[in-house]
Amino acid sequence: MKAFAIVMEDHFISENGFSHLKYTSEQVNNDFEIKRFDAVVSRNVDEYMEHYGLKWTWPDRGVTHDSVSGLRMHAYGGPPKRRYACAMSHFKLWEIAVNTQQPVLVLEHDAQFIEKFDCIDEIVNSKYEVVGINDPRSATRLDQKFHSIVQAAEGPLVDCPVIDDMKVPQGIAGGSAYVIKPNGASQAIAYAKAHGLWPNDALLCQQIFPWLGVTKTYYTKIQGLRSTTFSDT
């Protein structure tokens, strides 16, 4: 397994979040190194999207309906180019999983470890192509419902819970910490190229990819930093 953290170069919040993430990984005695992955940012996202032949098809405002998936698509808010850049950063890490044919642990700079991540073999040998490892509490909408369903299931890996109307994307608890396997990454990339790039936590949803799982033990939680995607600073 390869582990990468998405970091905005020379951005105070992102750089400090990454430093804390590495520190917490050392504190729980993880057996892997977290490599820095320089984030795609607003100023270069158009170049990257053009290179990969990608178009952004998630709404920047309001609500639309996707005829392919049947999903109701709600605008996320915040500067649009920052949302594109965040999704593009995840996309490029999916590409690493495909090119190396190894699972990739994707971490955003605001993740922090709370337990030693020691279940990679279970994930690799499981039916799941994407596995979220993050504590859902304070990390997603309907977080207590998500938490309750996960904890009531038999582990250590469980199906990603359904917490809302199936017209709304149902996925892992945010995109700050998850493992994606090569086959899942290949499918996600193909879908984005065919139907457009979306926020990663919307694209990786059960309605499109019914192979999402989560760990019953939460290995990470969010640091609670100010968003670098939805704010202008």
Quaternary structure type: single chain
Round the Cα radius of gyration to an integer and report it.
16 Å
Order of SSEs:
EHEHEEHEEHEHEEHHEE
Structural class: alpha/beta
The overall average pLDDT, rounded, is 94
Give the number of helices: 7
**Beta-strand segment tally:** 11
First and last CA, distance: 33 Å
Globally, the shape reads globular
Poorly predicted residue ranges? none
Q: Strands of the biggest beta sheet: in what spatial order?
A: 2-1-5-9-7-10-8
Sheet with the most strands?
Answer: 7 strands, mixed
Q: What fraction, in percent, of the residue positions are helical? A: 25-40%
Descriptive overview:
With 233 residues, this protein is of the alpha/beta class. It has a domain at 2-118 and 176-208. It is built from 7 helices and 11 strands. The longest helix is centred in the middle third of the chain and has 21 residues, at 80-100.
